[in-house]
Amino acid sequence: MPDSLPRPHPSTWPLDRSHALLDEARALVPGLTLSMMKRPEHFAPGSFPVYLARGRGALVEDVDGNEYVDFVCGLGATSLGHAHPALLEAARDALELGLVHSLPTELEVRAARALVGVVPGAEMARFFKTGADATSAAVRLARAITGKERVVTVGYNGWHDHFMFDTPGVPSALATLTTRLPLFTSDDEPRLLETIRSGARELAAVVISVPYNRCVTRDLLLALRDVCTSAGVLLVFDEIVTGFRLALGGAQELFDVRPDLSCFSKAMAGGMPLSAVVGPRAHLEQMERLQVSTTFGGELVSLAVCLRTIEICRDTGYVAHVASLGRALREGVSRAAEELGAPLRVLGYDAIPFFSFSPDAQRHVALMRDFQGRMARRGVLLRRDVNFLCAAHTRAQIEHAIGAARESLSEMRAAGAFGA
């Protein structure tokens, strides 16, 4: 697999193996795949690969042998790129030590030391496996600390019952304990602050994942910090996506606002399954009295790769590099769209650019599916909304993606996709 640009797709662009596997998965895998955000309907069904075979750097290859510049990046987990040599070395070395030991290992301590060393205000860290594990542990901890039960959530914070209280299979009683609020526009901000003030007596925590379609202000986060402090409510930053992307310490570092607890995963461990709750000792040490435990939190390979990922991100210009590449992608695609009269704009933060055709969800999805399919045909994989940069992306790949976007949008305009 070349290190820079994907091989041009043949005129037939075969996807036969992908579609055969998809047919088999329908009989074997509920929901077709293990993450709902990887399902075919989130891309461009029929004109998009379904199954990947391998990846190196920022390039991936599907099961039919087609190559792509990858802006999905394992849903944001592959911060340093696919098959990074240093991470592979760390994984191999850890494999020689065993997988899960019968007692704690030194790696737990070393990884915790490295993580609290790059998250402002953090003094302790507790490891889990998934982002939902970490946010759920933070909610339980907040309830134990405050003696209150209700929570306010902003953004997607995981699939567990207290977050997805309105989905099938969740007891209806849980809906009384969680309030989910949007933060897509500045008009949503007063309601969030007022909900915290008015619910102070029952509210244990506010769990916030900053929106990706716009950049919030430091003033908002400071106001959120102040109102939570006044109300005796713990402020929890969900940094599953923003950690090790907006800054090593995520949004809290970028905006210089300190939450009571924060949750990390994805880019923190370079693609390995690992998450963490971090915060000041006064809060984290109380987790000892909770029934929060996991056999695999101390699994050695993930901890070793996490430690190496933190070291690389800390000791290189990683954050500035991915931001610079993301800014070039955002500006280049938006400029091409504007020149072609296309409604596409790329919004949000440089390292996690958000593609938007329209604030109307139905129109956006229809246009984005068309665009995703045309981009894939040109060797570029995009998500429908927020996309990701990794350390392995190159300027040449960014220029390739911008050129592909210009060609794709030009075809869509010629086909009348944007209307009169």
Automatic annotation (TrEMBL):
InterPro entries: Aminotrans_3, Aminotrans_3_PPA_site, PyrdxlP-dep_Trfase, PyrdxlP-dep_Trfase_major, PyrdxlP-dep_Trfase_small. The keyword Transferase applies. The keyword Transferase applies. Gene3D superfamilies: Aspartate Aminotransferase, domain 1 (3.90.1150.10), Type I PLP-dependent aspartate aminotransferase-like (Major domain) (3.40.640.10). Keywords: Aminotransferase, Pyridoxal phosphate, Transferase. PROSITE patterns: AA_TRANSFER_CLASS_3. It comes from the Bacteria. It holds the Pfam family Aminotran_3. One of its GO terms (molecular function) is pyridoxal phosphate binding. Its cofactor is pyridoxal 5'-phosphate. Belongs to the class-III pyridoxal-phosphate-dependent aminotransferase family. This is Glutamate-1-semialdehyde aminotransferase. The lineage of its organism: Bacteria, Pseudomonadati, Myxococcota, Polyangia, Polyangiales.
